[in-house]
Amino acid sequence: MTLTPDLNQVAANAWPAPAKLNLMLRITGRRANGYHELQTVFQFIDRCDRLWFDVRADGQVRRVNEVVGVAEADDLTVRAALALQRATGCELGADIRCEKNLPMGGGLGGGSSDAATTLVALNQLWNTGLSENELATLALPLGADVPVFVRGRAAWAEGVGEELMPVDLPESWFLVVIPDCHVSTGAVFAHPQLTRNSNPIKLTDFLRGDITNDCLSVVRSEYPPVEMALHWLEHWGGGRLTGTGACVFAVFDDRELALNAHQQLPASWQGFVAQGLNYSPLLAKRDEHR
Ligand SMILES: C[C@@](CO)(OP(=O)(O)O)[C@H](O)COP(=O)(O)OP(=O)(O)OC[C@H]1O[C@@H](n2ccc(N)nc2=O)[C@H](O)[C@@H]1O
Ligand SMILES: Nc1ncnc2c1ncn2[C@@H]1O[C@H](COP(=O)(O)OP(=O)(O)O)[C@@H](O)[C@H]1O
C-alpha cells in the first residue's frame, strides 16, 4: 500500500487549458453596440492552466479551490458549466478544481481557456453530445476568445474574434514577459487615442510580416511596466503585445535562444519560455475520452 498520491495519475486526469498569443491585432471598426471589429491571429502556447472535474449526481456545480481575485460565482469555469447544463438540460453537476499557472488579465486568455476546457470536458464527462459548432456557439457569450479555445486550432480571426479560419504557422519559441501591472481590456478599448480605423489586411500580409497590434501605443504609454518590458525586448529582436496586454513576447527560432534570453531577464521580472502550438493540447485530451 502507498500513502503518497499517485502523481502520474493526478497528471493523467488533468484537462489542459493552454494560453494563447495574439501574433497581431488590428482594429478595423466599431459596432453599434460599442464592440470593436478586429483582425487577429491566435496561436496556442504550451503553457497551461490545469483543471480536474468530478461529476456529481446532485446537479450542483462547485469550484472546490480558491482562485485569488475570482469569486466562485464569477469564475468562467462555473459559468461555462452552468451554461452547458442550461443548454442541454443535463441533471449532472461537477466539482471543478483549477490550477492557475497563467497570469490573469495578461492577454494570455487563461480565463477564456479555462471556460473552453470546462465546456469540452463536461460535454464528454456528462455525455451531453454537443457538436464542436454547438459548443462554440455556447462559448461566445462567455467571452470573445472562448470559441477559439473550444475549436483548438490556431486561427486567423475576424469580427469580435468569432469568425475563425484555421491556419498553420511556424511553431516558434517565445519568451513571454509578464509586466507587473494589470491592463483593463475595457479601458484600452475605451481610450480616446486608440486606433480604430486600420485598413483590413489579408492573411498573406500577416505572413509577409505585418504584425501590428493597434493596442500597442495606448498600452505602452499608459502602463510604464509594459513600456519597460518592450524596451528590454528590443535587445532580442523586439517585443509584441498579446491582445490588450499586459504580457509581451519575443520570437525565437529555437528553444536554446529563448532560454538564453530568459536567463538574462532582470531578476525582479517574471517571464517564461513556451512553444507555439497550432493544435491545442485540449484536443488530444478530448479525443482520449471519445
Ligand atoms: C481583444 C482581445 C484579443 O484576444 O483581448 P485580450 O482580452 O485577450 O487581451 C479579446 O478579444 C478581448 O475579448 P474579451 O476578453 O472577451 O473582452 P472583455 O474582457 O469581455 O471586454 C471588455 C470590454 O472591452 C470592450 N471590447 C472588447 C472586445 C472587443 N472586440 N471590442 C471591445 O470594445 C468592450 O467594452 C468590453 O465590455
Ligand atoms: N478561471 C478564471 N481564470 C482567470 N480569470 C478569470 C477566471 N474566471 C473569471 N476570470 C476573470 O476574467 C478576467 C480575464 O482573465 P484572462 O482570460 O486570464 O485574461 P485576458 O482576457 O487578459 O487574457 C480576469 O481578470 C478575471 O476577473
UniProtKB/TrEMBL annotation:
InterPro entries: GHMP_kinase_C_dom (IPR013750), GHMP_kinase_C_sf (IPR036554), GHMP_kinase_N_dom (IPR006204), IspE (IPR004424), Ribosomal_Su5_D2-typ_SF (IPR020568), Ribsml_uS5_D2-typ_fold_subgr (IPR014721). It comes from the Bacteria. It catalyses: 4-CDP-2-C-methyl-D-erythritol + ATP = 4-CDP-2-C-methyl-D-erythritol 2-phosphate + ADP + H(+). Residues 76-152 form the GHMP kinase N-terminal domain. Keywords: ATP-binding, Isoprene biosynthesis, Kinase, Nucleotide-binding, Transferase. Residues 217-269 form the GHMP kinase C-terminal domain. GO terms for biological process: isopentenyl diphosphate biosynthetic process, methylerythritol 4-phosphate pathway; terpenoid biosynthetic process. The active site is at 20, 145. Gene3D superfamilies: 3.30.230.10, GHMP kinase, C-terminal domain (3.30.70.890). Its EC number is 2.7.1.148. ATP binds at residues 103-113. Pathway: Isoprenoid biosynthesis; isopentenyl diphosphate biosynthesis via DXP pathway; isopentenyl diphosphate from 1-deoxy-D-xylulose 5-phosphate: step 3/6. The keyword ATP-binding applies. One of its GO terms (molecular function) is 4-(cytidine 5'-diphospho)-2-C-methyl-D-erythritol kinase activity. It holds the Pfam family GHMP_kinases_C. It is an enzyme of class 2 (transferase). Belongs to the GHMP kinase family. IspE subfamily. Catalyzes the phosphorylation of the position 2 hydroxy group of 4-diphosphocytidyl-2C-methyl-D-erythritol. This is 4-diphosphocytidyl-2-C-methyl-D-erythritol kinase. It comes from Chromatium okenii. The gene is ispE.
